[in-house]
Amino acid sequence: MIGRVDGLETSLQDKEAELDTAKLLSFAIALEKKRLEEHIDQLRRNSETERIEQHETYQTEVIIS
């Protein structure tokens, strides 16, 4: 009976270690996802700014012509 309890405790410790590893991996993935989302948002803002600047330049050229 004691051997079985020891085996179950070992199995539990192994599963806890697996869970800890999974938590660390999911945290790293969440951080990377957040970083990529922020990068995408920055690219969108830059693209919008560039589009507005190009439109203003075009309008200026049309007025000058």
Strand content: under 5%
pLDDT < 50 runs, ≥5 residues? none
What's the Cα radius of gyration? 28 Å
Largest sheet: none
Average pLDDT across residues? 94
With helices defined by DSSP (H or I, 4 residues minimum), what is the helix count?
A: 1
Question: Structural class of the helix and strand makeup?
Answer: mainly alpha
The first-to-last residue Cα distance is 95 Å
Let me know the number of strands.
Answer: 0
What series of H and E elements makes up the topology? H
State the helicity in percent bands: over 70%
Name the shape in a single word. rod-shaped
Summarize this structure as a short list of keywords or feature phrases.
65 residues, 97% helix, rod-shaped, 0% strand, mainly alpha
What do these coordinates show?
The chain has 65 residues and is mainly α. It has one helix and no strands. 0% of the residues are buried.
Detail the topology: elements first, then pairings.
Blueprint lengths: L1 H63 L1
Keywords: Coiled coil
